[in-house]
Amino acid sequence: xxDNDVNNSCLISGGAGxxxxxxxxxxxxxxxxxxxxxxxxxxxKENLQTVLDHPRLTIVEADxxxxxxxxxxxxxxxxxxxxxxxxxxxxxxxxxxxIHFEENIIATFNMLEAIRMANVPKIIVFASTSAVYGEATxxxxxEDYGPLIPISTYGASKLACEALITSYxxxxxxxxxxxxxxxxxxxxxxxxxIVDFIRKIRENPRQLRILGDGKQEKSYIHIQDCTAAIAHxxxxxxxxxxxxxxxxxxxxxxxxVQKIAEIVAREMNHSDVKFRLExxxxxxxxxxxxxxxxxxSVEKLLETGWKPQYSSRKAVEIAxxxxx
Length: 324
Hints:
This protein folds into two domains: 9-184 and 221-249, Rossmann fold (3-Layer(aba) Sandwich); 189-219 and 252-293 and 309-322, UDP-galactose 4-epimerase, domain 1 (Alpha-Beta Complex). Helices cover 35% and strands 19% of the residues. The protein has helices spanning 18-29, 69-77, 97-118, 153-171, 193-203, 223-238, 257-267, 299-302, 312-322, and strands spanning 9-13, 33-38, 57-61, 80-83, 123-129, 175-181, 183-185, 207-210, 217-218, 220-222, 244-249, 255-256, 274-277, 293-294.
């Protein structure tokens, strides 16, 4: 995944998180020197347990919500900047919207300022989300869909970050690859529907409460596929000359929340659990800001020569095993 114009040192903000730790392992395996920057609010050092003693790994505890001279120094030494630090919990926006503003937008601005002050062109790879599309009327939803009208503060914060990153790329001569993820699931995940269902069944094996009407239908991608797609698209972008490019990373199918509940119950050997659908809000959503139907178009990704190994259903089955 190397390019003649980029050195073999990279920075991963949020590198101890769910996706970030998997990417850290992958890049170390590709002989990169990796600097992980994380405040360990949601990321955990245990996520990096297999590589903690790796000679090409440096871990820096830093909060991107604050300016940091140490961050500027690390950025200056790295050609590739993977900006994955964020608060990924959509539901928190209903009660504490400032969290998404501070941990997503402010953190991204401070990262971009560190990149600007390095005064050397960088490649920025940003972890965005399907939530920027809001309630898309075109399913599957392509990258050029618009207008983008997010319905959650999480989606809004990520869209704001995309705008900041593209503006810095054009103004200060950097390059940016924006990756819009579907629901990423698998080992080390600490939030989301599968994690919630496992916790609820452990608490009450007789009844499983399902937020919404159970008909919410979305795409899911396993963390192994997600990490492979990130590595593939980064290499693809490095070989190109675009200033900014955007790719969806998702799957070719969807699965309903009720079907996920059935799979999780079966994998936990509680197939007799009774489901209690709670109706939800705004026409069956699990919570305010929950996009009820989501499938990203991955045609652009497929055209680069890569496709996911696991379907949404298979990804859920694997994740349900891994997360117990």
